């Protein structure tokens, strides 16, 4: 099984958080996302700064390298921590907050729609990675295949949390009922299963979680994907969300017009490469250097530098 | 086109001592079946019965004790397995006698009409006074204006009296 | 002396190695009868009488580490597995079932190659 990941560990006091991360590492998860949950998005207005919501900066959520090393021992380097922010969407008017820099700096952005209109907005327009579907009560809105397909095409994943099912018997029923209803509309694509745990004991191993997929009418491949490959795809989606939208154009070196040869120096492409494998090796070289440059600018909310050739 | 496939089960409520409950409600029957579902199939069964198409009692005839229950096609076997275990509705001892299983309401309604028609001659033999007998006779003639077989039954029952 | 058995298709039973974990600091003494009772309770709350009546046998139970080897019918594997995963509360104590190994052959549960380490012997 490729790297299993758990993208919903609720933030809490430091000692409990450390316990949870230790448990996740012990169970075999390769990456976790520490989640800060905002129950209501309030309007941030320039005039009324006193009412502005206090959203903590993303870096304060994660454990420092030293703490992680102490906690996990020699294998701490392969364990990845991400930051995540989730909010409930109740009003279509307030949702511009999700596009602000404070929110977008988090690695993963998740929303939980509560009405038809906010669900439609989240699937088609909002710049988010995850749409959480509530498992604590009956789904308040009707699911439409067209809306869900729009989200699937954009690469957004739908999340179901299994920790409520572990805590309480009635929540278990809603978890299964809501998830089965969703899987019926969605044919099991783009689903991730995460924990949403409050205590370390509510975490379950990746194979156990994959088996819960069979309760939700997912087939074996889809259940496994819910814990592994969909999560990896989500990481890529979050990276692309934080970068500017850009277009890449692939050109052979020989065909670059005269006034753009400065690009060769800028991208540090050496002429010796030209002779090795012809044009294709150079193109790969250009892409390779570009992506490494992009990684360094990932921390910032948006890459302002132009790295790829824009048309 | 997303199509929710249903199953409709027509059952008769059989009371031990031929009692008809005048205050029998669809809710009471639903709760009896849902309790058995929880016992037999646990949280999973109840959860499957909650998503659309959910388990509901669509039709209830308190005078003839007929009940029509709707469930999803996937859960049909589970629900059918619960029906024999329903022993009480409220405080009254009762059991469910399954008469018909169909995929559409229309088919079930057609069956119910046929069933009522077939029960009328039996009712006739259980009439205790001429007023009741006359009423049942009228209902019979109305219902089987086009049905030759039931008319024959009617003639035989009237000649025997 | 030895008998060769060739089986084709799905085998009837599946063997599962499980461990019952409690929170750190909880002292819970569970004997084999109580352990089986917990498993049946988990199966019953999740899937009702229909699942708790299936043939779940505890073949070996180790009290100190609360580890056991169970034998379950193959048709019920997925259900019993999910029922055990979702069980979290025993008499008010927070607990979790950790499924260590699953195999249709009991022999496979005797060793776990993931726990082995390679030793390089230098001549």
As for the CATH topology of the largest domain in chain A, it is: TIM Barrel
Structural class, from secondary structure content of chain A?
Answer: alpha/beta
Low-pLDDT runs of chain B = none
Regarding quaternary structure, what we see is heterotrimer
Q: Main attributes?
A:
heterotrimer, B: 161 residues, alpha+beta, Alpha-Beta Plaits, 2 domains, 5 helices, 22% strand, C: 123 residues, 5-stranded antiparallel β-sheet, 24% helix, globular, ribonuclease P RNA binding (chain B), rRNA processing (chain B), tRNA processing (chain B)
Q: Could you describe the 3D structure shown?
A:
The complex is a heterotrimer of chains A (311), B (161) and C (123). Chain A has 2 domains: 5-242, Alpha-Beta Barrel (TIM Barrel); 245-311, no CATH class. Chain A has helices spanning 14-27, 65-72, 101-104, 116-124, 145-154, 163-167, 169-186, 206-212, 220-227, 229-242, 262-266, 271-277, 279-296, and strands spanning 5-10, 31-38, 80-89, 108-113, 130-132, 157-161, 191-194. Chain A has 311 residues and is an alpha/beta fold. In chain A, strand 2 (31-38), helix 2 and strand 3 (80-89) form a beta-alpha-beta unit. The longest helix of chain A has 18 residues, at 169-186. Chain B is α+β, with helices and mostly antiparallel strands and 161 residues long. Chain B has 2 domains: 6-103, 2-Layer Sandwich (Alpha-Beta Plaits), CATH 3.30.70.3250; 119-160, no CATH class. Helix content of chain C is 24%, strand content 29%. Chain C has helices at 32-47, 49-52, 77-85, and strands spanning 13-22, 57-62, 67-73, 89-90, 93-103. A 5-stranded antiparallel beta sheet of chain C has the order 2-3-1-5-4. The longest helix of chain C is centred in the first third of the chain and has 16 residues, at 32-47. The model of chain C has no long low-confidence stretch (mean pLDDT 90). Classes of the chains: A alpha/beta (311), B alpha+beta (161), C alpha+beta (123). Chain B binds chain C through residues 37-45, 81, and chain C through 44-51, 79.
Please specify the SSE layout and strand pairing.
The complex is a heterotrimer of chains A (311), B (161) and C (123).
Chain A: E1 5-10, H1 14-27, E2 31-38, H2 65-72, E3 80-89, H3 101-104, E4 108-113, H4 116-124, E5 130-132, H5 145-154, E6 157-161, H6 163-167, H7 169-186, E7 191-194, H8 206-212, H9 220-227, H10 229-242, H11 262-266, H12 271-277, H13 279-296
Parallel strand pairs in A: 1-2, 2-3, 3-4, 4-5, 5-6, 6-7
Helix pairs in contact in A: 4-5, 8-9, 12-13
Chain B: E1 6-15, H1 26-48, E2 56-61, E3 66-72, H2 76-82, E4 88-89, E5 92-102, H3 105-125, H4 130-143, H5 148-160
Antiparallel strand pairs in B: 1-3, 1-5, 2-3, 4-5
Helix pairs in contact in B: 3-4, 3-5
Chain C: E1 13-22, H1 32-47, H2 49-52, E2 57-62, E3 67-73, H3 77-85, E4 89-90, E5 93-103
Helix pairs in contact in C: 1-3
């Amino acid at each position: 099984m490729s790297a299993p990941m758990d993208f919903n560990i609720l933030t809490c006091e430091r000692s409990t958080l450390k316990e949870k991360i230790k448990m996740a590492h012990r169970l075999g998860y390769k990456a976790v996302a520490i989640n800060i949950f905002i129950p209501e998005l309030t309007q941030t207005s320039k005039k009324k700064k006193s009412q502005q919501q206090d959203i903590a900066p993303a870096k304060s959520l994660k454990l420092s390298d030293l703490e992680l090393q102490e906690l996990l021992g020699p294998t701490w380097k392969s364990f990845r921590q991400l930051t995540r922010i989730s909010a409930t969407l109740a009003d279509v008017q307030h949702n511009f907050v999700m596009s602000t820099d404070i929110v977008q700096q988090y690695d993963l952005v998740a929303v939980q729609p509560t009405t038809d209109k906010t669900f439609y907005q989240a699937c088609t327009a909002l710049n988010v990675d995850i749409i959480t579907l509530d498992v604590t009560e009956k789904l308040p809105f009707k699911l439409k295949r067209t809306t869900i397909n729009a989200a699937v095409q954009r690469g957004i994943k739908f999340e179901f949390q299994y920790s409520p099912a572990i805590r309480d018997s009635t929540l278990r029923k809603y978890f299964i009922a809501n998830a089965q209803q969703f899987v019926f509309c969605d044919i099991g694509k783009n689903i991730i299963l995460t924990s949403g745990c409050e205590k370390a004991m509510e975490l379950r191993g990746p194979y156990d979680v994959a088996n819960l997929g069979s309760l939700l009418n997912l087939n074996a491949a889809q259940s496994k994907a819910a814990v592994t490959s969909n999560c990896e795809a989500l990481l890529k989606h979050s990276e692309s969300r934080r970068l500017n939208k850009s277009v890449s154009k692939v050109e052979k070196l020989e065909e670059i017009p005269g006034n753009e040869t400065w690009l060769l120096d800028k991208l540090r492409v050496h002429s010796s490469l030209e002779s090795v494998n012809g044009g294709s090796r150079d193109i790969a070289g250009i892409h390779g250097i570009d992506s490494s440059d992009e990684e360094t600018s990932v921390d910032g909310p948006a890459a302002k530098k132009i790295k790829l050739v824009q048309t | 086109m997303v199509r929710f496939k249903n199953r409709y089960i027509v059952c008769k409520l059989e009371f031990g001592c031929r009692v008809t409950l005048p205050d029998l409600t669809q809710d009471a029957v639903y709760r009896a079946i849902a309790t058995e579902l929880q016992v037999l199939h646990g949280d999973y069964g109840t959860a499957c019965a909650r998503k659309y198409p959910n388990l509901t009692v669509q039709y209830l005839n308190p005078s003839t004790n007929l009940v029509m229950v709707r469930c999803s096609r996937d859960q049909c076997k589970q629900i059918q397995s619960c029906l024999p275990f329903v022993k009480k509705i409220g405080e009254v001892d009762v059991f469910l006698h399954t008469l018909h299983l169909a995929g559409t309401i229309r088919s079930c309604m057609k069956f119910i009409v046929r069933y009522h028609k077939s029960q009328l001659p039996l009712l006739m033999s259980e009439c205790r006074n001429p007023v009741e007998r006359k009423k049942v006779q009228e209902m019979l003639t109305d219902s089987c204006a086009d049905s030759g077989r039931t008319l024959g039954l009617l003639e035989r029952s009237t000649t025997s009296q | 002396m030895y008998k060769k058995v060739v089986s084709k298709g799905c085998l009837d039973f599946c063997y599962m190695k499980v461990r019952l974990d409690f929170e750190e600091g909880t002292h819970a003494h569970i004997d084999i009868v109580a352990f089986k009772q917990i498993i049946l309770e988990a199966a019953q709350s999740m899937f009702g009488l229909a699942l708790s009546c299936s043939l779940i046998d505890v073949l070996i139970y180790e009290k100190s580490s609360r580890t056991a080897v169970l034998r379950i019918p193959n048709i019920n594997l997925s259900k019993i597995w999910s029922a055990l995963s979702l069980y979290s509360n025993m008499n008010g104590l927070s607990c979790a079932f950790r499924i260590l190994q699953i195999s249709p052959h009991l022999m496979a549960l005797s060793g776990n190659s993931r726990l082995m380490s390679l030793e390089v012997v230098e001549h």
